Amino acid sequence: MKKTERIVCSFAVLALLLSLGLVCSAQDDTNVTYDEILHAASHPSEWLTYGGNYSSQRFSELKQIDKQNVNTLKLRWVYQLRRTGIFESSPIVVDGVMYLTEPPTTVTALDVHTGRPIWRWTADLPKNLLTIGLFPTNRGVAVLGDTVYVATIDAHLVALDAKTGAIRWSVEIGDNRKAVAITQAPLAINGKIIVGMGGGEGGLRGYIDAYDAKDGKRLWRLYTIPTKGEPGVETWEGDSYKYGGATTWNTGAYDPESNTLYWGTGNPAPDWNGDLRKGDNLYSCSLLAIDADTGKMKWYFQFSPHETHDWDSAEPPILFDAKIDGKMRKLVVQANRNAFYYVLDRETGQFLAGAAYAKETWAKGLDAKGRPIEMPNIDPTTQGNLLYPSITGSVNWTSSSYSPLTGLVYVDTREQGAYYFKGHPTMEPANPLDIGGGGGQRVIYGDDAYSAIRALESTTGKVRWQFKMVGDSWTGTLATAGGLVFCADSQGNFFALDANDGKPLWNIQLGNSVRANPITYAVDGKQYVEAAAGNAVSVFSLP
Amino acid sequence: MNVIRWLYGAVPGIALGIVLMAPSATAQFGGPPAAHGPRPRTTPESIAAGKALFEGTCANCHGVDGSGANGPNIRDAGTRLGPEALYQTLHTGVLGSGMPSFASLGEEKLWQLVDYVSSFGQPTGAAASGDPQKGRAIYDANGCSSCHMIDGQGGSSGPDLSKVGTIRSAALLRKILLDPGGNLPTGDDLQERAQYPAYEMYRVVMKNGKELLGTRVNEDSFTMQLRDESGNIHSVQKFDVKEIERVPDKSFMPSYKGKLTDEQLNDLVAYLASLGGAK
Amino acid sequence: MRAAKYLVMVMALCWALPSFAQVPYERLLNSDAEPQNWLMYGGNYGSQRFSGLKQITPQNAANLRVAWVYQMRGGGVMESSPLIVDGIMYVTEPPSNVTALDARTGKPLWHYVPQVPRDFVPVGLFPTNRGVAILGDKLYLATIDDHLIALDAKSGVVRWNSLVADKADGYAITQAPLAINGKIVVGVGGGEAGAHGFLSCFDANTGKLLWQTYTVPRSASDPGADTWADGSWSNGGGTTWNTGSYDPELNLIYWGTGNPVPDWNGEGRMGDNLFTCSLIALDADTGKMKWYFQFSPHETHDWDSSEPPILFNASIDGKPRKLVALANRNAFYYVLDRTTGQFLTGVPFAKQTWAKGLDAKGRPIKRPAAEIEPSVQGTLVYPTLTGAINWTSPCYSPITGLFYVNARDGGAYYIKGERKFEKGNSNGVVGGGGGGSRPGPADETTTSIRALNATTGEKKWEYKMVGDSWTGTLVTAGGLVFSADAAGNFFALNADTGEPLWHLLLGSSVRSNPVSYSVDGKQYVVDSAGNSVFAFALP
Predict the structure, then answer these.
(1) Cα–Cα distance between C133 and C366 in angstroms, integer?
(2) Smallest Cα–Cα separation from A83: which of B71, B94, C80, C470?
(3) Could you say which of A201, A444, A472 has the minimum Cβ distance to residue B1?
């Protein structure tokens, strides 16, 4: 994963390699091998995994679109959803086909040359679908071999034929009647499909699964909360571990060298009242390092022990190697919902650095081991307790990106405070009216609430620059070798910033907020940038 | 965890005061399912009443026989959705489409519509005279599964047959086996039209001389997507095309005329007609 | 469609926009003098949908790009043709909402969402809205549940609200009203529910009803009652569901009328069924009918004649004539003298199999009933039930003298319905008397943009599309025709030759009429696809 190890294929060479024939073979035997995903960086014309590569860097080597010409970007085609809904999909682009998902769970294959649909598959969902604390949407698919994998909102993993969308198999990941619901893109590794689950506000116990990519057989399951007799269960008072949440609702990262998965976990439940779950509540609000073959936990790092503000740690972890104190280190970093940026040794989980990257009023800082030094009286109260950040956190499910060229991590940051209200200490599992045990927030309105793209020094978390936006942005970032960062504001402006200094270089009004991570790819030697705004997918290129 | 809490009020004051959505704990699409009493028994009378309702209310968009007009083909809606979801769809409409709510018809009439729509596309296995068990063996022996998929098993260059018994009559299945090119199925999924012959074969000659033969997956005024015999998709810009020619009455599927005995054919049809079925 | 789900906008942005000018009648009268604006549904009183702008030309059209996008927040079918007045765009969203946008940026300024009963199901039509009218400082909106509402154009607040019709009788409105001197004219839809067609005229300032003219007899002594056997006029029909035109000099309003009821069985309503499937010319002051022309006497295929009539002047046989032209759903193109209603020319502009031709008075010479009447098993007739054209607007260029129409070629099997019609059943039960159609031979239906010699109907060129397009046309002084195909490819054609010059896939079908305007010297073309409004301009 070192930059020097990359087989960097310059764009000019790439263009030569691509067929310039008039007929574009959109799909010559779709067959995404594990090896291709492994070396995703050397296939920058494709976007092979949710995070762009196993390291979840959301960085592209493409550089046809650069600082000089980005202001001539032109809309090339639009695809509109067949039903309106919350559209948060980050597509996969491979062999001339774009695979995207529409809410609640529809997979659509588009001819990437024209934007015209090739096939569409829609999950049969129960009419009494249970989605507690989340919207029925889907954030993307995984592709491995000639198969597309999607996790449905009613918690099934489905394998579809990549050419036709015909269903190969479907297995149940969890019981939707008990509030298990899935919105994340699965992660395809060597012969296995890794997928987590959501629904923590419904009072359940989190887990992460691996399935055989061929037949859907479950290979392992790792619960994120220990049960009686297991170490860590003592961090949960009484029986509270039984419905403690700690779900795994966002897509993680993978280090093939050490065969380790990195996956964030959600909050403990009930969310806003920790009175009857005293203790650190392991392994909620943590990053887990998992052996991909066995599902055994290698190490964990808990960001927010005994969390009471719904600050999940499900944010996508980013892997890269960099020098710290003159020594090359294998790192995993995460910009956490709790407003701190963390740098860990990804081999050991050792805390190396951490700093607040957004306004927070709940901790004085982090101690030498990375544990927060909490301020007094930060728990929610019946009258409402004012804290920063708000429930949705300094960042939520959207992805940050990392550019090995600038060494910066780009975070779509939210600056907002809220009054936190206490819920009740016991919760009724799978009761949609008892979401997270009640309680919640009232946010602070006013000019000190805003979003900003912040560029953090990747080994320290120090803010190098920021680009302030109007409103509450829910877009991930994309960094490119063209020296650009793409993102969007809540007002429907999709834009490009200079990756070095955050200067805005181009924008277009797309009519509705972009609530998905943008991606980039190339077709026939032309680089495209994709953004999903409101009800529509738009792709842009140079004229 | 996720975002719903934010919607209770995490509205940035600076952002022009936008209220996106009303809070809802369980986000169903189109609101919570409509409550209703038990479904009345389906009778020939209820189906007839539903037919009258359908012709007056639904036929303008879905065609008088449900095969589509302005709106989609819904002949398999009964098997695909089942009565409850069908009722809910009629009651609530489909957000983002032209399908409105028909709640004002009242429960009794909605169930009559459900009865009539459900009478489309019932499995036709009973009408086939052959032996489905033997038919299955014939299916396997003739390599049908190299192109067709049933319940996830088989190839994907031809149509998925998992539910073919609910959407094709035994008589039509028989005709297809004897003359596949002359009895292409209609599609209604991708194109912006009511229905069109799916798997229709086209020969495309590009300006650079390259030739393509494939079935049409999709087409608009400027582009075409073709699937070749191996199932690969080809994207065609019509500006680059010298000639597009429809190849009538052809299919990549071979005819089984003369290759199977009448009895074998009956068995195979019986097997295919048994596939799918109401859940 | 709950109001609560809609964006509620603070109007802070209003300040930053150019000061709002009033739109007196004189501006509407001379709308051609201000091509930067689009002041009424049809572009001008002649419904020509011709834009005098010429920045975008056949030479540079290939450089067109999307300037901005606006997405509506609800679902439904967006069929709105916006107005653009001094930098502000007024667009409507289904079912009956109005949104004001900054025409430069597409950013919303205000939304108006009327209280429409949630469970109201109009019969035989989609709950949508096709646009507003402007006069003075007010916008006029007709709602799906039959209200005419005057809104303050600056803020969207309600000035007055009048009832046009009772939805319980099957009435529903989707059209843009027409604003003339101090008056607002609006028609109604709902023929399939047995609504009796009429045209109403309201005082623009007070919302008071000034006149109302029915298009179908309401008693045996009304004119035309003898053309309905056995008092079948009581079934209703002849609705007025699309926006008409106006000749200020003659002070005549031209409006098309819909089909008789029940639609697909004419046995119980023998006779010509006046004044259904007609063009009617009404005195704008009194509502009195000056003349009528019936295109399809005793119609049995749901071929309304609600297509927008286009007014223009041209020489015929060396004599300058005041003309009205209409491309009819029945597949014939008609040219009439608009002073007298005299038939001058009529020729098919799309495939049709129901008439041998038109006689000297323009009356169709029908083929034998057995070949064309709906039957129990289905009779294959061209055009389809939706017709050779439906509600979308054709356009006319005074520069080329051509009439541009998006024409549908296709047939359908027509199925006979109930002879007896259950009047006033607004639940949609047995709407139109049952019956209808099923698709004709698969994949045969295509649409083409056709350029017709406006006075003869002779085809000059055509541009064939794939699929069943539901988009109107716009022609500009720059020499371009804009429209879109069924897949959502929005395109520009050379107005002289039909040659395609530019296209962009908008990802969902375009079911509305394009318009053009300019702000700060920049020409924009705008249309909506799916749930989005797209504005195009040169870089």
Answers:
(1) 39
(2) B94
(3) A201
Three-class DSSP category at A281? coil
> Residues 359 to 388 of A: which have CB under 8 A from any B CB?
none
pLDDT above 50 for C167: yes
**pLDDT tens digits for C79-107?**
999 999 999 999 999 999 999 999 999 99
Considering only alpha carbons, which residue of chain A is nearest residue C68? Answer: A509
pLDDT tens-digit readout, B19-76: 222 222 222 233 446 778 888 888 888 988 888 888 777 877 777 777 766 667 787 7
Taking CA A427 as the corner, what is the angle to CA A424 and CA A431, rounded to the nearest 5 degrees? 125
Pick from B9, B14, B29: which is nearest to A470 by CB? B14
- The amino acid present at C445, given as its one-letter code, is T
The C-alpha of B261 sits at a distance from chain C's nearest C-alpha, in angstroms, of 32
- Tokens for C150? 């005057």
Type of residue found at C208 = K
- CA–CA dist A242, A427 (Å, integer): 11
User: Cβ(A319)–Cβ(A55) under 8 Å?
Assistant: yes
Cβ atoms of A244 and A277 closer than 8 Å: yes
Give the end-to-end CA distance of chain A in Å, rounded to a whole number: 34
Q: Looking at the partner chain, which of C8, C485, C531 has a beta carbon nearest the beta carbon of B220?
A: C485
- Closest Cα in chain B to A245: B1
Q: How confident is the model at residue C376 (pLDDT cuts 50, 70, 90)?
A: confident
Give the alpha-carbon dihedral of A51, A54, A59, A65, to 10 degrees. Answer: -80
CA separation (Å) from A349 to A286, B198, C267, C406? 11, 55, 85, 66
Chain C hits for A114, CB-CB cut-off 8 Å, are 505
Q: Provide the sign of the torsion angle of the four alpha carbons A59, A60, A63, A68, taken in this order.
A: negative
Quick one: DSSP state of residue C222? S
Q: Of C4, C242, C194, C240, whose CA–CA distance to C118 is shortest?
A: C4
Query: Min CA distance, C252 vs chain A (Å)?
Result: 41
Calpha distance C302→C320 (Å, rounded): 35
Q: Is the peptide bond before A104 cis (omega within 30 degrees of 0)?
A: yes
Question: Which residues of chain C make contact with B219, given a CB cutoff of 8 A?
Answer: 466-467
Chain C neighbours (≥3 Cβ pairs under 8 A) are: A, B
pLDDT: which is higher, B216 or A529: A529
Instruction: Report how far residue C451's alpha carbon sits from residue C334's, in angstroms, rounded to the nearest whole number.
Output: 14
| DSSP-assigned states of every residue in chain B | --SGGGGGT---TTTTT-------SB--TTSSPPP--PPPPP-HHHHHHHHHHHHHHTHHHH-TTSS-SSS---TTHHHHHHHHHHHHHHHH--TTSS----GGG-HHHHHHHHHHHHTTT---GGG--S-HHHHHHHHHHTTGGGT-EETTEE-SSS---TTHHHHS-HHHHHHHHH-TGGGPPEE-SSSSSS-EETT-EEEEEETTS-EEEEEEEEE-SSEEEEE-TTS-EEEEEGGGEEEEEEETT--SSPP-TTTS-HHHHHHHHHHHHTSS---
* Chain A touched by C349 (CB under 8 Å): no
- Backbone dihedral angles phi then psi of residue B236, each to the nearest 5 degrees: -120, 130
**Quick one: which of B149, B198, B185, B178 has its CA closest to B262?**
B178
Question: What's the CA gap between C538 and C523, in Å, rounded?
Answer: 8
Instruction: Let me know: does C405 contact C452? Beta carbons within 8 Å.
Output: yes
Please indicate whether residue C485 is annotated as part of the active site.
no
Closest alpha carbon within chain C to A72: C539
Q: Tell me which residues of chain B, numbers 42 to 101, contact chain A at a CB-CB cutoff of 8 Å.
A: 80, 84-85, 88, 94-97
Per the CB < 8 A criterion, the answer to whether A453 and A487 are in contact is yes
Closest residue by Cα to residue B275 from B115, B122, B144:
B122
Instruction: Chain C: give the shortest CA distance to residue A493, in Å.
Output: 9
